[in-house]
Amino acid sequence: MSMDDTTAGHLQELRRGTVVLGCLVRLREPDYGYALLESLNRIGITVDANTLYPLLRRLEKQGLLTSEWNTDEARPRKFYRTSPAGEQLAGILTADWKNIDRALARLTSGDER
Amino acid sequence: MTAPTTTLTDRYVWAAVRTVPDAQRADLDRELRERIGDASDALVGTGRAPADAERMALVELGDPAVLAARYVDRPLQLIGPRYFLTWWRLVKMLYAIVLPIAAGAVLLAKMLSQAPIGESFADAFSVAFALAVHLGFWPTLIFAILERSPGRAPDLSWNPDMLPELPETGRAGRLGDLIASLVFLTLFAILIIWQGYGAPVVNPIGETVPVLSPDLWSFWIPWFLVLIGLEMVFAAAIYAWGWNWWLAVVNLLLNIAFIVPALWLFTTGQLINPEFLDVIGWPWGEAGGVVTTIIVFGAIAVTVWDVIDGVIKTVRGRGGSALSLGRI
């Protein structure tokens, strides 16, 4: 395994949970898969379609997202929206994310070694 | 082609949804069409021809069967990590225990029914082969079904009591083996000598009848007594150094030096004293052949096991029991 593969693997692991958090926050406004994919990547939360679409289904199955088919346009689209349970989880994940960030900052500055 | 309007997308969606349960088909169908449509529209937006864009979008999605399996959370392996070790231990244990017993039983049964030696071995081999296929297939099938059945895994959780004992590396662990070997070999040597003088078998005129042919005293009985002496030295060597490959080979040679002449003498009728056979009324009608076969078979089985046991102990690098299969 080359150095680049190792780095890519660790980056992917580090980002895995942030995609869930990104979806839960972003889907407070209902949206469909492709639009979500585009907007997450645009703001720097990188995710590919083969990860995102199954993830949306899983989050829906876990009751963190709700979905509704929009058939107004020629192509029917499934719109997802964060459920109250998803909102709660987003709060917990965000708090934890900030804790980790602070902890890493302390480690880096060498305050509480 | 069923209709001129059939597109690659239609074919892809059909290939994916046919593998999921009926209830989820309509939903997955719509979701996939949305996803493929949006992806190819985006590609068209970057200047690609619609046909190329559709094809690229499908390539991006990958194998429809894999995609569908991900959608419905179906495992893509025969036996996953949840059951793999349990399955592996079971199969190893079945092979180690059932196969040799079954092959040996068939071989013995064939020889007892006076079948030719080649045919006996061929039958034992074919039974062992068929059994190996069955022993591999059925547990695997059951575990593959378990892997695919919903619900909690049966409680096969590990606990510290299952930890194997550390191998006994010191001499203390081998002392038992040494004592057992020396006692057995001594008794064996005494028995060989004693049967020539004080055996409890007497002829009609009251003379003691040796069990082994008295002619053997010129060479073969001393040969076997020397071998017994060497076996004692060998047992001491095992005690001193533990099993290693040299000693495993010596064990093989000692076994061959013993079993080959013994069986040759036995089967050519030179081993047992003819007068002794007269006294016990040998051959016992039909039973004679059976008893002979069982003795030959048993002797070979014990020898083969002793050699294998040496190899197993060498491989494990210890003097403990070789019967702790299944612990792994």
TrEMBL record, chain A:
Origin superkingdom: Bacteria
All copies of domain Transcription regulator PadR N-terminal, residue ranges: 28-88
Source organism phylogeny: Bacteria, Bacillati, Actinomycetota, Actinomycetes, Micrococcales
Entries under Gene3D superfamilies matching the protein: Winged helix-like DNA-binding domain superfamily/Winged helix DNA-binding domain (1.10.10.10)
The protein's name in its UniProt record: PadR family transcriptional regulator
Pfam families: PadR
UniProtKB/TrEMBL annotation, chain B:
Signal peptide: none
Official protein name in the record: Uncharacterized protein
Protein keywords: Membrane, Transmembrane, Transmembrane helix
Native source organism of the sequence: Agromyces bracchium
Coiled-coil parts of chain: none
Regions that span the bilayer: 93-112, 124-146, 178-197, 217-238, 245-267, 287-308
